[in-house]
Design goal:
Elements (H helix, E strand, L loop, with lengths): L2 H7 L1 H6 L4 H13 L1 H18 L16 H20 L3 H20 L29 E6 L6 E8 L4 E8 L6 E8 L4 E8 L11 E7 L6 E8 L4 E6 L1
Antiparallel strand pairs: 1-2, 2-3, 3-6, 4-5, 4-7, 7-8
Amino acid sequence: MSESHRHGDLLGAYVLGVLDAQETREFDEHTAACEACRAEVTELREAEALLDAVPPEAFVDGPPEGGDLLLQRTLRRAREERATVRRRWSAAVGAAVAASAALVFLGGYLAAGDPSDPEAGPVIPTATVTAPPGSAVPGVKVASATDPDTGARMTVRLTPAAGWVRLNTAVTGIPAGERCHLVVLSRDGDRETAGGWVVADDGKGAGKGADLDGSAAVAPDQVASVLVQNDKGKTYVTVPV
């Protein structure tokens, strides 16, 4: 099996976040040099974000015949990777690793504040940037901001890789039905789309908050900010990092 093909087989597991630390580092190094794999990771993350807004029961029988090919491929790969992960994580140590990874992200999210706090009024969109204690990857940043005009709020966790960045975000305050993009803005003004989603309804007529992961081919030290825009170019919130 060629090196490229081997990494291609791991794309789904990488997007799902179920690779171990060594595999993740190897994949980071590979995607930094492989444009094809990097592009496919971005496509899979966008598809994964869209799937989050779809009720699980909609996929009981799989996607419809003739449906979107990327959607079908993502669903098929996700099922295969999850089946592999169940076998690999049958030991208790696997569960411990998964729990630790979840706590690392939760810690970064809570450190930035609660975006649903009704007492928090609009503020000028300035960011609080921190490096989470004990982070396994040097240079990880957590930042948040609330836009005073739109009321939208975003918390961003930025993880540096070799020539690009991974993002974990939590977004609230955007109206239901909006088609939004997660955009990374570089210091020289270049824009890179890191993901996208359709804002779901929270059941009360308002937009439901979303947790979105993505990646962008921007050098970590060149990232100026992360922003959310709809498909018409309206910016809902910008987080300087």
